[in-house]
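Supplementary Note 3. Input sequence used for the single-chain structure prediction.
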Amino acid sequence: MPAKGQRKKNPSKRTKQQRAYDASPEVKKKRAMRNKARRQAEREGKVKKGDGKDIDHKRPLRNGGGNSKSNLRVRSRSSNRSDNGGKGGRPKGSKNKRK
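The predicted structure, written as discrete structure tokens, is reproduced below.
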């Protein structure tokens, strides 16, 4: 551990811009809302710590969604993070074309 006032030899790989973004008031507020939704689901027994589940906001926070029970659902971590807030499935008009 470095002495007081000294830096670590291997600092975090996150850039100054990333750290500044994560510290912005808007991002802090949304992170707090996500954490609150997780704690609420844990109290209700829907999820447990380390179970590989995420709390999904049907209408994402970035689109004005909130933490009401009707907007929350439990999903696997991989499926929740792969759809990136979409409706799921392929977008309309896209077809799996093979050549």
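The longest helix spans residues 25-43. The first strand starts at residue 53 and ends at 57.
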